Amino acid sequence: MAHQVDAKRMLDERGYQGATVHDQNPAHLLEKAVRDRITESYYWKEQCFAINEATLCDRAVEMTYLGGTYGQQKPTPFLCLALKLLQLLPEREVILEYLQQKDFKYLSALAAFYVRLTFEPVEVYNTLEPLLSDYRKIRRRTKDGGYSLTYMDQFIDDLLVKDRVCGTSLRKLPQRALLEDLGQLDARTSPLEEEIDEIDEEDDYGQSGSEGLDPAEVNGLARNGEGEHNEGM
After folding, report:
1. What average pLDDT does this structure show over 199-215?
2. What is the mean pLDDT of residues 76-94?
3. What pLDDT does residue 200 have?
4. Torsional sign, CA 124, 125, 126, 131
5. How confident is the model at residue 19 (pLDDT cuts 50, 70, 90)?
6. Alpha carbons 69 and 93: distance in angstroms, whole number
7. DSSP secondary structure of 115-127
8. Are 116 and 128 in contact (CB under 8 A)?
9. Which DSSP string corresponds to 149-203?
10. I need a labelling partner for 32 at 20 to 30 A (CA). Which of 20, 133, 152, 183 fits?
């Protein structure tokens, strides 16, 4: 009963005196309309009552998709558990453990969503960008009640560049380039850029290898190649 009273107090618009995030009641990081749909849902009442960080983890590993609301504005378990995390306010180390474990991808996605909601901008980039190399497939519940296929790296990219994800508005995140100009972030090198550099080095090596050949040798190799091609026809 005490837990239920505390939960209601946290969702109350009036006189909240608990811990704050971004100078406000953490639950209010989700829009009021979204909070109302969550707290009226069957999943919230049956699966989110009197749970702690450990039992929330158990609920999260049971998830098979992420998303916001669907059908008649029904909230997904993903969104319900996000609100519960905002109520619990776990220690940073707990969230990072959720995020970095590799066995349960929807738990990682939930932690990433929480990071985007609660961490400061520089921390958001530093914490989430490593997951841009995570290519695990994930299912997203669509507004019409169906499903679509996406990938973890795409979900993380959405969190970094969009102001609305999973049916709720997010605090505006400063562009990365601005934080780089302010000296708060180092320039980021993507894995794709590293692969391109390796390809360029291989091309340069191949060209330098042929530059040392005498033109007559090159012509001779070409004629030999033509002869072998003709013999094979």
Report:
1. 61
2. 95
3. 67
4. positive
5. confident
6. 29
7. HHHHS-HHHHHHH
8. yes
9. EEEHHHHHHHHHH-SEETTEE-PPPPPHHHHHHTTSSPPP--HHHHHHHHHHHHH
10. 152
For residue 190, which of 157, 231, 213, 155 has the smallest C-alpha distance?
157
Q: Each residue of 107-160: pLDDT tens digit?
A: 999 999 999 999 999 999 999 999 999 999 999 999 999 999 999 999 999 999
Measured CA to CA, the distance from residue 230 to residue 46 in angstroms comes to 77
Residue 214 in this model has a pLDDT that exceeds 90: no
Distances (CA, A) of 33 to 50, 68, 120: 23, 12, 24
Mean local confidence (pLDDT), 68-96: 94
Token code pair at residue 157: 């990219």
In total, the chain counts a number of residues equal to 233
Secondary structure class of 103 (helix, strand, coil): coil
CA–CA separation, 33 and 26 (whole Å): 15
Say if CB 116 and CB 27 are below 8 A apart. no
pLDDT for position 17: 72
Does residue 138 contact residue 155 with C-beta atoms inside 8 Å?
A: yes
DSSP category for residue 73: T
